[in-house]
Design goal:
Number of helices: 7
Strand content: under 5%
Largest sheet: none
Order of helices and strands: HHHHHHH
Shape: globular
Radius of gyration: 16 Å
Length: 162
């Protein structure tokens, strides 16, 4: 298969899940679209480096994660946890679903790395080996990070109930 054919496979297979992964991290649709396009362009430029087709998914997610990290390094977060309900059309959650809003607020209290691990595991359903390939961290430490993130979210949600 040609490089262009491989690239179109990436676009067809991963554009939507990558978009939602990115959007959960940055919230804004416009920023998510920009990061997705940057991710796909970087994937196209580096596609010749891919040797193992079985690692294509984690490779593309790693590029997206690097682009998200760059976004957070160069631009302060425009959204605050308290302002989540005010996003209107920009938010990716149903603003009438109070439980989903609380969950998103809880996730936003995590560190960026915890958010990445939690989103990849919980929403994108990646295994720890795949998350390891994306983040460069060992599977054992990722399990601890995910567990701690879950505990923080549970505690936040319990405290919100009081």
């Amino acid at each position: 298969m040609s490089l262009y054919g491989k690239y179109m496979e990436i676009v067809d297979r991963y554009s939507e899940p990558l978009y939602w992964y990115i959007r959960r991290m940055v919230v804004s649709h416009e920023d998510a679209q920009d990061i997705l396009q940057d991710t796909l362009l970087a994937a196209y430029r580096k596609l010749w480096q891919v040797r193992d087709e079985s690692k294509l998914k984690s490779w593309v997610y790693r590029i997206a994660t690097n682009r998200i990290n760059r976004y957070f390094r160069t631009k302060a977060r425009e959204s605050s946890v308290e302002g989540l309900e005010d996003f209107g059309g920009m938010t990716y959650v149903d603003t009438s679903d109070k439980a989903e809003i609380k969950l998103q607020k809880a996730i936003k209290t995590l560190t960026p790395f915890q958010q990445t691990v939690f989103n990849l595991r919980y929403y994108d359903e990646l295994g720890y080996d795949e998350i390891s390939a994306v983040t460069g961290s060992g599977t054992g430490s990722l399990k601890v990070v995910y567990h701690n993130a879950k505990e923080k979210i549970i505690k936040y949600l319990e405290d919100e109930q009081l």
